[in-house]
Design a protein that fits this description.
This protein has 195 residues and is mostly helical. The chain has 6 helices and no strands. It starts with a helix and ends with a helix. It is an enzyme of class 7 (translocase).
Length: 195
């Protein structure tokens, strides 16, 4: 319940960012038309695809936790070869999710570097300010999710036995990760589609 309340407060935070974005956009429509020409939409779409797919890999990790809990066993790692993805446990799926999230952040950093090189900075215009605020805060949330994955994974390696509390932690981290993905879909649609 606490997780849902906390995610609700995060939703309000991002709702305020969306409201500011649309308010400033309504006041400066010409600026938006000029500044959005700097965006690399195909690159952002590929980066978005990676983040959205990471939500599926995260959920596969949750299914692995639930599957091992149903069988009464503490298996959180793969039961077969590494290339046999159907035998993967929570660890393998969460590690893949972590890698995909890291690739997303690296892609966002690359996009920032290209935009700064093109002259779009936080100080250059109201559009730049809103672009970097919305995507930057989202990036911080992705980084927070990656840290949470590391903590959950670390606990599975340190603990002798996979407990119910660890399973709940993995599920809570997945809620957060899905939330971050849904927020990004909204941001992507707002920033890159509704130019």
């Amino acid at each position: 319940m606490g997780t849902i309340i906390w995610l609700s407060s995060e939703l309000m935070f991002f709702a305020a960012l969306f409201a500011a974005y649309f308010t400033i956009r309504a006041a400066e429509p010409g600026l938006w038309a000029q500044e959005t020409s700097h965006l690399n939409v195909p690159f952002a779409a590929a980066n978005t695809t990676i983040l959205v797919l990471s939500s599926f890999t995260c959920q596969m990790g949750v299914f692995a936790v639930e599957r091992s809990a149903a069988k009464g066993g503490p298996q959180v790692s793969r039961s077969g070869k590494i290339y046999q993805w159907r035998s993967w446990g929570m660890r393998e799926w969460f590690i893949l999710t972590y890698v995909m999230g890291s690739v997303f952040l690296a892609g966002q950093a690359l996009e920032y570097a290209e935009l700064v090189h093109a002259g779009l900075t936080m100080q250059s215009s109201a559009y730049g300010s809103m672009f970097y605020l919305t995507t930057g805060f989202h990036g911080l949330h992705v980084a927070g999710g990656l840290i949470a994955f590391l903590l959950v994974l670390g606990r599975t390696y340190i603990a002798r036995r996979f407990t119910h509390e660890q399973a709940v932690s993995a599920i809570v981290v997945s809620y957060y990760w899905h939330f971050v993905d849904v927020v990004w879909i909204g941001l992507f649609a707002t920033i890159y589609w509704i130019m």
